[in-house]
Amino acid sequence: MVTGSDDGQGRAGLGKAGVAVTLAGVLVNGLAYVVPVLGARHLDPAGLSALATLLALGAIGGVASTGLQIAVAVHRARHGRAATTRPTLVTVVVTAALLALVLPVSAVVFRLTGPAVLLLGVLTVAVVAAGRWLGELQGDQRFLRLAVGMALLAVGRYGGMIAGLALGGGLTGALLAGAVTSVLMLALLVRLNRGAGIDPVSPTLATRTVLTASGATLAMLVVSYADLLLARRFLPPDASGVYAVGTVLTKGALWAPQVVTVIALPRLAKGDRRTLLTALTLVGAAGAALVLATTVAGGLAFGLAGGAEYTAHGRYAPLFAATGALYALVFVLINARVAASARWPSAPLWAATVAFVGAVATVVPHSVAGIAVAALVTAGLTAVITGAMTIRHEPDSAATSVLPTPTATSVGHDTLRGG
To answer: Where in or outside the cell (predicted)?
Structure first.
């Protein structure tokens, strides 16, 4: 299959693309990191906890974007440039309907305002729609444009909120700005992807493939954010604010090595176990380095995440970093299972979520340390179980079938998550 693209040919082009995607990933994670950090400086503890909760809900709701992106990218890697309009519309409509049902309930359960959850819904739908165009760029191996698309989506998703907070707009003002910029950047992303033709002989992407990928990604986000949501529910405002700062470290450890998965997924989709082992090694090494850093300088880490008033809680930093590092490994494993067309790839994640919620509701002490330790244990067990299932799994025929004959308009590579 032809490996060229409009962004460069061969190893040199791939090297430049890898650097570009890495820089775009740094921008994505950097802007995502700045939002709660800036919120800690412009909002009171209760407002910061509400912001962190909204960000978690938005991340969970936005997993349909990642699922759509994964499905489109993997399908194009195997079958060429197939039509993706119908599964995109289905994904967006289903997401919007679910948000309309879930967000009002969340507003009551987590003590959030109506305008805040409404604006969050608008922002999330825009992010979900973006998954199609990011996936097409990935599957077509147009990595330089993918990097630009990642940057555009990050600016839309987080840049508006950063501006709203910096200008003193408060929680609602930040979400309003984020919703507006997300819609504007979506339009730019559509324009960026012009020129990607459709191969009429390519099989159409099945909606159930998107649902499988979205379900796995949803399970990944739910299990990794469950502790933050439960802290909001069971801890007093000051303690939940401390926990919200700690989860900044969790998210940093979880998403910092995502570029490894971005580069690895093309080979994972073809059942390359050596690539899986390499990806796990690199992600594990990055996680170990972050845990070591937070062990040595936990107060500094908490201070950078939430401000000087949070440095006294630095003793919790290694717990949060270790949890994120373990879930980063789970993220690689789950995407390997999705790429290999494994059945029910999200099953261990849902089981872990149910067990964790049940434990926190019944036996885990309702303190920062209590919930953080329970989250760490859950992450460790999830990584072990998912790893064992991944090692035992043999790629299905769909993942290892003979690829179509190379053509001048067909390329065969994909990546995982662009934003």
So the answer is: Cell membrane
Residue carrying structure tokens 């973006």: 130
Instruction: Kindly state whether residues 198 and 303 are assigned to the same domain.
Output: no
Is 136:72 a contact under the CB 8 Å cutoff?
A: yes
Same domain? 59 vs 44: yes
In this structure, are residues 153 and 130 in contact, taking their beta carbons and an 8 Å threshold? Answer: yes
pLDDT band with cut points at 50, 70 and 90 for residue 269: confident
pLDDT value for 408:
30
- 180 and 231 fall within a common domain: no
Number of domain units in the chain: 2
Q: 86 lies in which domain range? A: 9-205
Which range of 242-251, 253-262, 269-278, 377-386 scores highest in mean pLDDT? It is 377-386
Q: What is the pLDDT of residue 116?
A: 92
Domain boundary among 146, 170, 205: 205
CA atoms of 311 and 262, how far apart (whole Å): 34
Of 25, 22, 32, residue with least CA distance to 59: 32
Q: Do 378 and 239 belong together in one domain?
A: yes
Report in angstroms the alpha-carbon separations of 176 from 116, 135, 171: 8, 27, 9
pLDDT digits (tens, 9 = 90+) for 310-358: 888 889 999 999 999 999 999 999 888 887 777 788 899 999 999 999 9
If one counts every other C-beta atom within 10 angstroms of the C-beta of residue 115, the result is: 13
User: At residue 252, does pLDDT exceed 70?
Assistant: yes
User: Do 307 and 285 belong together in one domain?
Assistant: yes
Secondary structure of residue 5 in the 3-state scheme: strand
Torsion on CA atoms 260, 404, 338, 8, rounded to nearest 10: 20
Same domain? For 261 and 326 the reply is yes
Q: How many CA atoms lie within 13 A of 78 on its CB side?
A: 22
Q: Are residues 173 and 93 in the same domain?
A: yes
Contact of 330 with 386, CB cutoff 8 Å: yes
Q: What is the pTM of this model?
A: 0.73
Tell whether 94 and 162 lie within a shared domain: yes
Of 275, 282, 232, 221, the C-alpha closest to 257 is 282
Write the CB contacts of 392 (distance below 8 Å, at least 6 apart in sequence).
none
Which DSSP state fits 205?
A: P
Residue 36 placed within a domain: yes
Q: Band of the pLDDT at 199, cuts 50, 70, 90?
A: low
